[in-house]
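Section 5: illustrative case.
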């Protein structure tokens, strides 16, 4: 049914764009095969006329919503006709500066890596047809350093399509501190790349809250669910800010830790104060934000948390969980 309607709308648009004079409903009904087949006289003239009028008005409204400018013209006999002038439905020339072309090329390369090269190529061809200059190559790097956004995760393409189509998904997800993956039922909102990694933001149905998932931690296949969203989609999804906060990069306080000498260089790079204690240990003050406990656990016996008490307790709980397996 969707294909038949799309074909009918396309034929109607071609008729309206291809005529030099307004065409009446009668002429359009006799010219478009879908109308001829659906409303033959043997089905009852009055009923067929009413059904055709309703379908034609819906089709005309759909084309206008898609952006086609359809004019309604009345001739000297009072008959109403329709046409879509080409000059009213022509896109203005598209001009891109070097930065815009580079951004477009980067987006196209992301699609190519996600096995969507055909769609990316088709989009660029449409831009050229609409006026993109031939001497502007979106794939051409515009500087000594060429930006790249890697897309290696198999989950990227199904999640991107699910975000576009507003379809809930189910996947198995392994947290950084977990041994086994857990099943997540998510309403996907947006995908974003941050520091070389792709993240999905969405509504976790089981937890009843917004969550962000790193694609590299999704295991197995992403499965779609044929149900509607249950939570509203926010106008702005702050994926990078959320991930940065969880990584401890957005912090309004400090933590005091002891760190073994010659170890934990990533922690030393984040430290605001470093003091030598002797006996192979240093004391560091580092920004304290959400997720710092998980990061400190990765350094094992080389780190001892001194303050605050809640951070020390969180680290101890995580280490006990790891020890239990």
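Designed sequence:
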């Amino acid at each position: 049914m969707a294909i038949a309607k799309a074909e009918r709308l396309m034929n109607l648009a071609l008729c309206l764009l291809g005529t030099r004079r307004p065409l009446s409903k009668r002429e359009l009904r006799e010219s478009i095969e879908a109308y001829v087949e659906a409303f033959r006289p043997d089905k009852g003239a009055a009923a067929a006329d009413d059904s055709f009028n309703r379908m034609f008005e819906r089709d005309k409204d759909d084309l206008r919503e898609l952006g086609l400018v359809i004019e309604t013209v009345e001739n000297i006999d009072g008959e109403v006709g329709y046409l879509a002038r080409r000059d009213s439905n022509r896109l203005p020339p598209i001009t891109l500066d070097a930065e815009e072309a580079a951004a477009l090329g980067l987006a196209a390369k992301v699609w190519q890596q996600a096995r969507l090269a055909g769609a990316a190529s088709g989009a660029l061809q449409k831009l050229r047809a609409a006026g993109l200059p031939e001497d502007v190559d979106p794939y051409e790097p515009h500087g000594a350093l060429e930006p790249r956004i890697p897309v290696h995760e198999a989950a990227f393409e199904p999640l991107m399509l699910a975000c576009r189509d507003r379809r809930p998904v189910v996947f198995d997800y392994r947290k950084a501190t977990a041994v086994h993956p857990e099943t997540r039922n998510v309403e996907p909102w947006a995908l974003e790349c941050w520091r070389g990694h792709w993240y999905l933001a969405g509504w976790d149905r089981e937890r009843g809250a917004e969550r962000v998932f790193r694609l590299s931690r999704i295991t197995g296949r992403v499965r779609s669910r044929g149900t509607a969203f249950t939570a509203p989609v926010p106008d702005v999804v702050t994926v990078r800010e959320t991930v940065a906060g969880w990584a401890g990069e957005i912090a309004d306080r400090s933590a005091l830790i002891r760190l073994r000498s010659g170890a934990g260089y990533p922690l030393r790079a984040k430290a605001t104060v470093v003091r030598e204690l002797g006996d192979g240990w240093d004391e560091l003050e580092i920004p304290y934000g959400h997720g710092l406990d998980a990061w400190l656990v990765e350094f094992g016996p080389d780190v001892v948390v001194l303050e605050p008490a809640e951070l020390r307790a969180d680290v101890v709980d995580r280490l006990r969980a790891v020890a239990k397996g």
